[in-house]
Amino acid sequence: MTRSRLYLFDTTLRDGAQTTGVDFSLPDKRAIAHLLDDLGIDYIEGGYPGANPLDTEFFSADNGLRARFTAFGMTKRAGRSAANDPGVAGLLDARADAVCFVAKSWDHQVRLALGIGLDDNLESIRDSVAAAAARGREVLLDCEHFFDGYKANPAYALACARAAFEAGARWVVLCDTNGGTLPHEVERIVGEVAQAIPGDNLGIHAHNDTEQAVANSLAALRAGVRQIQGTLNGLGERCGNANLTSLIPTLLLKPAYADRFEIGVTTEKLQTLTRVSRQLDELLNRTPDHHAPYVGSSAFATKAGIHASAVVKDPATYEHVPPESVGNRRKLLVSDQAGRSNILAELERLGVGVDRDDPRLGRLLGALKDKEAQGYAYEGADASFFLLAKRILGTVPEFFFVERFSVNVERRWNARGELASYSEAIVKVKVGEEDLISAAEGNGPVNALDTALRKDLGKYQSYIEDLKLVDYKVRIFQGGTDAVTRVLIEFQDAAGERWTTVGVSANIIDASFQALTDSITYKLLKAGADSMSVLPGPTARSARL
Ligand SMILES: CC(=O)SCCNC(=O)CCNC(=O)[C@H](O)C(C)(C)COP(=O)(O)OP(=O)(O)OC[C@H]1O[C@@H](n2cnc3c(N)ncnc32)[C@H](O)[C@@H]1OP(=O)(O)O
Ligand SMILES: CC(=O)C(=O)O
To answer: ipTM score of the complex?
Structure first.
């Protein structure tokens, strides 16, 4: 079967810039444009030249993109020609391959928001599109509020779309601006519009206010459009736009679409999608959505023991596509929902070999569930799970023993007359036969304790010099006076490896202490320091099970 070409239009840098909390810098915009270009997106809407200095500068030079670089802006104002409209001039002077005008197509909005006559708006559309086409630009028209407008006055909404098409627009894009239209409505309306304007010239721009933007885009595709607009990670005004990070794999991996349509993204490039999604979050300093379809860290994570036992027999039992196809990975989580299959899979990933029939496996599962009942959470604390398993298997030596620690927090007026808080910690550690005492100040009690703990570990000190604490999370649960605190601490070493440990106590400092000592022990084991240890352990003192 011959497949139709479907074009992807990315508006991360334009509609995505309208996301609450998103503020692109120029280097961000350049980096994201190149990510999209490399992925194989056909059109990259870079912003609105003339609306702000950053966008104007972005469009002042050749950005060296393969994709069609697109400038966005509104049609000319009524009462003047496109040639005399400074906004239109800014768009036509921009270094862009394509110009995407936005025009209202709902009669009520034309009268109310623009305060002009319906024919004036049609004239603005025609004149603006023709002016851009005459300057050799590929022209798109975003018909704002198309679906709401069509429901209120189909003849006028269609007249706006036709005006653009007849004036030379390559694409007439039907926008669900308020995001309230449902898939069955989109499919019906697009089907009717496609009787008047060829589907090869129609696009869809869907907002996600009812969580239907992806479904609406697919509905429009089925009804005839051949361009889909969207954003990476679903960024966009209010609840966002159609999420290209979900649409692209659906279009490539689901036969209902893959057999009918060809897109610019290849199946090889699809394998970079998870990385691209995370890079965008990294650039914007946003926490990735763990539950994002296809690319989230939980998208292929199986927690339930019954599911895990089937997944190890055949991953397709609980996966709709292979995680590698989108550059993601399978995870079998260890938690109180786990069975032996989860544990065996995680141990294998961590390089710990145990036989399925080993009786210690049952002990480990029991210990895991007991600890989780006390408040520990191992699904996000791989290093603590590793230590728990190794302790049950009897292979964690006692590198060091903390005889006592104290932490002091003081809030007082200093010599400069400022109110300041001070934290200091003292730790007494035994390393082999050596007694070591370290003291440290910190910008808080946990920082002081961490610094004191890692200041002098005697013969093991060189192994932990490169440790860096990169994340610290606290969760207090059960509420009230018997609240329990769970601390998760993430460390990184010079080799770039990251690991997380967990501690639980009624006392936040004690919970932190457990997570800190687990991290140090994990690092010493990983670095092979056990070959130097004196005691083969676990001893009564260090055993914590
Ligand atoms: C559905 C969408 O996402 S459309 C994209 C919206 N994106 C943005 O608005 C981001 C960038 N916008 C901006 O920086 C500013 O709004 C600017 C520079 C474009 C305009 O700023 P200002 O001139 O101060 O106008 P302001 O933003 O207050 O109002 C918009 C004006 O454009 C007019 N307008 C809106 N759409 C159109 C259109 N398609 N064609 C012609 N005029 C339009 C409005 O009627 C209003 O005019 P008025 O001030 O005479 O009432
Ligand atoms: C153009 C646009 O962003 C919209 O109508 O939603």
So the answer is: 0.95
pLDDT of residue 143: 98
- 485 vs 363: CA distance, rounded Å: 26
The total of other beta-carbon atoms located within 10 Å of residue 195's CB is: 10
Q: What is the dihedral of CA 375, 377, 382, 384, to 10 degrees?
A: 0
Q: Which atom of ligand 1 is nearest to the CA of 48?
A: 11
Every domain of the chain and the residues it spans: 4-265, 301-386
Label residues 416-427 b or e (16+ Cβ within 10 Å = b): eeeeeeebbbbb
CB 68 near ligand 2, within 6 Å: no
Give the tokens for residue 392.
């049950």
- Residues 199 and 230: beta-carbon distance below 8 Å: no
CATH code for 4-265? 3.20.20.70
Q: What is the pTM of this model?
A: 0.85
| DSSP letter string, 291-343 | T-TTTSTTTTEE-SHHHHHHHHH-GGGT-SS-GGGGT---EE--STT--HHHH
Across 116-256, the runs of DSSP E, i.e. the strands, are 138-144, 171-176, 202-206, 227-230
Task: Give the residue whose CA is nearest to atom 24 of ligand 1.
Answer: 51
What atom of ligand 2 comes closest to residue 11's alpha carbon? 3
Region at 11 (left for phi over 0; alpha for psi -120 to 50; beta for the rest): alpha
Residue-wise pLDDT for 328-354, tens only, equals 999 999 999 999 999 999 999 999 999
Closest CA to 105 of 128, 126, 122: 122
| pLDDT at residue 534, as a whole number | 47
For the chain, the 3-state helix, strand and coil shares in percent, each to the nearest 5, are 40, 20, 35
